[in-house]
Fold this protein.
Amino acid sequence: MEKLLTPLPKEKCVQKLNAVGDALYVIGGKWKLRIIIAMSEGNYRFNELQRTIEGISAKVLSNELKDLELNGFVKRTVHDETPVVVTYEPTEYTHTLKNVLNSLAEWGTMHREKLRQEG
Amino acid sequence: MEKLLTPLPKEKCVQKLNAVGDALYVIGGKWKLRIIIAMSEGNYRFNELQRTIEGISAKVLSNELKDLELNGFVKRTVHDETPVVVTYEPTEYTHTLKNVLNSLAEWGTMHREKLRQEG
DNA sequence: GTTAGTAGTATACTTTAGGTAAGTAGTTAC
DNA sequence: GTAACTACTTACCTAAAGTATACTACTAAC
């Protein structure tokens, strides 16, 4: 069996695998990236996020927000208003995900279109 | 509450959420992207993949490969050799994930480095 | 004959992610 | 007073994912 492509050295491959593994560890799962997108598009409040992200329950949203906050992607603020308002905002660090989000959204759009054409 | 950024219209946001949702539906989960990377780096055989991808079991690898084949990311070939050799190769369609994989690997590397510095 | 390699499958069990539904606590409007 | 909004929490359940070990069946080397 000959190789189909010139592969990177094994070490490089493992490095890439580890990098992607680290990324998935913090932003993997069904909801995290969607929450980040919804936040980045101006949805800052709990119920606003829940309404925007179709299918997510309050429990899951609550848990995921805590997780994202812990990992430095979300800043939670309780405002002194009445009724109480809580906002969740993307941090500076979240903006480093820009390329990831854009390439994923772009690919998803292309894939969706491909599926649509194939029926 | 004023908006922090000028958000896209709601419709655009939902479109982006759906696109990412579609993407995650086929390439989400703990292993699929790692398998695609390992394959793309010249690991074509079952045990070779299992050795390269740390932590994956034969059962999971077997299931994920079937899934990836079904979705058009993997071409499975049984070779007439002795002992029997089976190869799993990335398809043309898999190459459309290039940007996704690169941006994710790049971000993961950066994130890993950040974690390392923070201890 | 035994060890090691090829590529898996089978079985059984555990863990975790996520889903469902209801409840809590406070405020405001009618 | 009661309905509806805010932002959640709690308890329970299920299905998917993961772990562990053993097993098949074939070949080659020692």
